[in-house]
Sequence to fold (329 residues):
Amino acid sequence: MKTASAFRCAVAAMVIGAMLAGAISFGAGAQSEYMRGGRMPYDAFDRLPKTDLEVGGSTIHVAFAPGDITLPKEKLLDWISTSARAVATYYGRFPVGSLRLLLVPVDGARIRGGTTWGYRGAAIRIPFGRDSTEDVLRGDWVLVHEMVHTALPDMPDRYAWLSEGLAVYVEPVARVQAGDLTAREIWQAMMRDMPKGLPQSGDQGLDNTPTWGRKYWGGALFCLLADIEIRKATGNRLGLQDAMRGVLAAGGNHELDWPITRILSTADKAVGVDVLSRLHDEMGPKPVTPDLATLWRDLGLKRIGEDIEFDDTAPLAAIRKAITAPRGQ
Ligand SMILES: [Zn+2]
Fold:
C-alpha cells in the first residue's frame, strides 16, 4: 500500500523498545486518534489550528494535537525553525515548498521519534514528550532527520537504506554547517557508530539485507564514502551535498516516486561524475567492507580515549573539513 511505503520512521529502529512502551500510553489517551488511522496525519490539519513558519523558501504549517506541553509554544516554534534552517542550509533551500508538521503531546520528557509522509504532500508527525526541556530541544536530531527525508523521492522499501542513510548522514553535517553542532562532535559519533553499518555474516548487499544496522548505518556509510569519492573526483570542489541538491533542482522530492537509478543518476549528473551509481552497483548487490581504520586515519581522525584529535596533515583532511564547511546557496 502506498501509505506503507511512503512513511519513514526514524525511531522505530533507533529506540524500538521505548516506542513499544509508548504505544501503550498512546492507545490509552486522547492522542491515540492522532497516532493511528489511515488518514493521519493529514486529517489532523483539517481540524487543528495551524501556525505558519517561513523558513528557507518554504512554509511550515505547524499543528499541535490536543494535550499540554510544559515548554511555551514559542520555544517549540524556535526549535522547528532551527531544525528547518539546518536542512535549508544543507540543501540550499528547504526541500519542499510546504510542509505540514504535527506535534502530538505524549507522556515523558523526550522526543519519541518521527514519521514522514509524502503521498498527500510532505508531512511529518512527531510524538513529543510533554515534559521535554529546552535541553531536549537543543540535543534533538529527530526533527532534522525527518526533514531530510522530505528531500528524497520515495522508493520501494528495499532501498530504504538510501533514504535512512542520507537522513542519518546529512542530519549532523547540516547541523554543523548551520552552527548547531561542532565538527568534533559529529566525527566522534561517526567513528563510534559507522561500524554498526558493516556487513555481518550472510549479508547480501545493501539492497538485500534489511537489518537495522545496514539500513541506517550501512546507508550512512555509503553516503560518507560517496561524499569522499565525489570530492576526490572533483578536486574537493563538489560533494554529496551538491549531488543531492541536484535531485531537488531536477524536481525530485519526497512527494514523488522515483526509481533509485533515476535518483542516483540525477545526483551524479549534478556533480559530473558517476560515483553514486557506481557505488550502488558495488554495494547494492553484495557485501562490501570498507577498511574504516584506514579511512579515519586518512581523514585525519585519531581517537584519544573518549575524545578525538584532528590531524590536518592527513591526506583527506581537506575533504574532511570541506564536508562540514558552510556552503553558499
Ligand atoms: Zn528516518
In short: Residues 2-149 form one domain.
